[in-house]
Design a protein that fits this description.
- The chain is of the alpha/beta class and 361 residues long.
- The chain folds into 2 domains: 153 residues, FAD/NAD(P)-binding domain; 146 residues, 2-Layer Sandwich (D-Amino Acid Oxidase, Chain A, domain 2), CATH 3.30.9.
- 33% of the residues lie in helices and 30% in strands.
- Strand 7 and strand 8 form a beta hairpin.
- Helix 2 runs parallel beside helix 11 and helix 11 packs antiparallel against helix 12.
- The longest helix is centred in the last third of the chain and has 20 residues.
- The chain starts with a strand and ends with a helix.
- The structure holds flavin-adenine dinucleotide.
- Flavin-adenine dinucleotide (FAD) binds next to helix 1, strand 3, strand 15 and helix 11.
Length: 361
């Protein structure tokens, strides 16, 4: 069996590792260059994503990620200012760990040099009479596969062609997301107050979410021990940081950069929180658009399928679902090598449509 995956995000790369480990021929086509593009600095990885990584990745990759994740997160703390002092009250449990996103990407790409083709934008595909699928790319390349997987994110070209009835709906909500070195705000006491938990402060006009990524082991040392094949640039100079997000609406955003808007918004925040924003790394502050994909009408299984953001959006845990999909699809395709391809793809797709329904209630 040959599988072509469109998109080298967390979902597509997790799938590629899983398929390769089971001996299935896989190629990943990615529109971006190998350098990628800014997508925020840190991800909250919960058990859905972590167990998919454990199942699909080689053990050394898993060990590298575990060594460099933040501490086990306990709960979401509710922060409030009482008499000028920031206090934390215990909120709901939210288990998981923070991972540094560029490092996750670099680890996922390690060992896939002969699998991932960069600078390859899918433009169209076609099902052929012999049951295979042919894909065309903007640079003139083509490829043919038994299964085509759209792991190509929110703007998925595969979804647009495969499920034209599926729509991306903009909620009008936005998140300004950034990161600030722990050392720049250590004097505020905030990193100690938050610890390994997530924290949220409900403030006039916005909500601020925070967490701290303290690398459990220094990434350089972890690379030497677990994954020397990882490019040294992926671990060079990584510093512990506070990851933060400010909720805004589309109307609040103007022509200013994400960091400038965040600083304007932070002007009225308690001093410790304001300092987190003003001391942030300007170039990693991004605006995240919050959108949804209402579940499309049921569709018959075919050799074209989707995973992750390409089919359902889940602000705050989309990468976890993408990796979980990758694990499920890998199991389905491994099974299909022994049985009926369309039945197993149909079973995989019904599992994630059930998740979509759950996520929307
Ligand atoms: C700032 C920020 C913070 C986030 N925080 C979290 C978090 O804490 N936890 C969490 O679980 N999720 C988080 N998310 C969401 C998470 O990033 C996404 O849900 C996740 O990346 C989806 O993975 P994916 O593999 O499905 O798609 P993507 O990561 O979007 O990858 C799709 C890939 O396909 C490529 N592509 C697109 N079109 C084509 C084409 N036509 N041809 C070839 N390639 C194509 C793209 O270049 C991209 O590399 C966050 C997102 C952002 C932006």
């Amino acid at each position: 069996m040959r599988v072509v995956v469109i998109g080298a995000g967390p979902g597509g790369l997790t799938l590629a590792h899983g398929l390769r480990r089971t001996g299935i021929d896989v190629a990943v086509y990615e529109r971006d260059t190998a350098l990628g593009r800014p997508q925020g600095v840190s991800l909250h990885l919960d058990e859905r994503g972590a167990s998919a990584l454990r199942a699909c990745l080689p053990p050394a990759h898993v060990a590298m990620l575990e060594a460099t994740s933040g501490g086990q997160r306990g709960r979401t703390l509710n922060l409030s200012e009482v008499d000028g002092v920031l206090e934390a009250a215990e909120g709901p449990a939210r288990p998981g760990r923070q991972v540094h996103r560029p490092l996750l990407r670099a680890v996922l790409l390690t060992g896939l040099d002969d699998v991932v083709r960069f600078g390859a934008e899918l433009t169209r595909f076609e099902r052929r009479p012999d049951g295979t699928v042919r894909a065309w790319f903007a640079d003139g390349r083509t490829d043919t596969a038994d299964v085509l997987v759209g792991a190509d994110g929110i703007g998925s070209a595969v979804r647009r062609r495969h499920l034209p009835g599926a729509r991306v709906v903009d909620t009008g909500r936005r998140m300004l997301m950034g990161a600030t070195p722990v050392r720049a705000v250590a004097g505020t006491g905030l990193p100690e107050l938050v610890g390994d938990n997530a924290a949220a402060a409900h403030l006039p006009g916005t909500t601020m979410a925070l967490s701290v990524l303290r690398f459990t082991r220094r990434p350089e040392a972890a690379r030497r021990q677990w994954l020397p094949a990882l490019g040294p640039g992926a671990v060079a100079g990584l510093d512990d940081y506070v990851m933060w997000a400010l909720a805004v609406t589309q109307e609040r955003l103007g022509p200013a950069s994400a960091w400038d808007t965040a600083r304007e918004l932070a002007a009225d925040l308690p001093p410790a929180l304001r300092q987190v924003v003003t001391e942030a790394w300007p170039d990693v502050t991004v605006t995240l658009r919050i959108a949804t994909i209402p579940p499309p009408p049921a569709w018959p299984p075919s050799p074209v399928t989707l995973l992750g953001d390409a089919i359902r959006l889940a602000p705050g845990f989309g990468a976890n679902l993408a990796m979980q999909d990758a694990h499920r699809l890998c199991a389905a395709l491994t099974e299909a090598a022994r049985g009926d391809l369309l039945d197993t793809i149909g079973a995989y797709e019904s599992s994630f449509t059930a998740d979509v329904v759950q996520a929307s209630v």
